[in-house]
Amino acid sequence: MTVYAIIGGTGLTQLDGLTINAALHLDTPYGAPSAPVLRGQYASGEEVLFLARHGHPHRIPPHQVNYRANLWALKESGAKAIIAVNAVGGIHSSMATGHFCLPHQLIDYTSGREHTFYEGELEHVTHVDFSHPYDTALRAKLAAALDQHRCSYSSHGVYGCTQGPRLETVAEIARMERDGCDIVGMTGMPEAALARELALPYACLALVVNPAAGKSNTLITMAEIERALEEGMGRVKSVLAHVLTS
Ligand code: HPA
Questions:
Q1: Residue 123 resides in a domain
Q2: Kind of pairing between the strands at 81-90 and 183-185
Q3: In terms of residue numbers, what domain contains 237?
Q4: What is the pTM (predicted TM-score) of this model?
């Protein structure tokens, strides 16, 4: 049985319906992960791992998340595949607040993050293939669950990952749109690449929580983002429960 690990983003620090059996306080060669890895079981018996990307309570900003420790800890805990939940801004006109996206591609605009396990004194210099960052089978499972729960979603999209923690300028979003980005977030990288380095299939369930900069007539407020998160996270939890127990 595949043991899935969920990496919960902003607004998702716990999973409903999951009985937690253990909180694994792990140390890794890269330091401590954002939070203990929670190991739990759904009533139907499926074992699931859960990690709050920003800590629990939420306290670590996107550029300071120890992505290497997080991915290492999940692999150590027995994860065989990863579903990442990410709150994003909508760039493409189809990416309205409340819409879900299962990105199939990404562009990395981050800088200065610890982004690889392959550094230091190495026996072999390694370049992992990253042509297709997201796992097709896992995306299909998520799509089936989104269908089942009648959620509005796009089965494809390009995720642009910015450095944060500030939001983008209008010109940056216009550039990202010209580059082909449909959604923008701050936590997709290096998480996806590190999962690939550890050979863990990885998919992203992205929830649009605001129109990206310049995509509406108003400025982006935290209140707007929090409202969208509150409205969307119930559906995220139902979709995850569906994927994890089917
Ligand atoms: N930009 C970057 N990251 C985000 C946004 C945004 O507009 N909304 C939620 N995460």
A1: no
A2: antiparallel
A3: 4-114+130-245
A4: 0.96
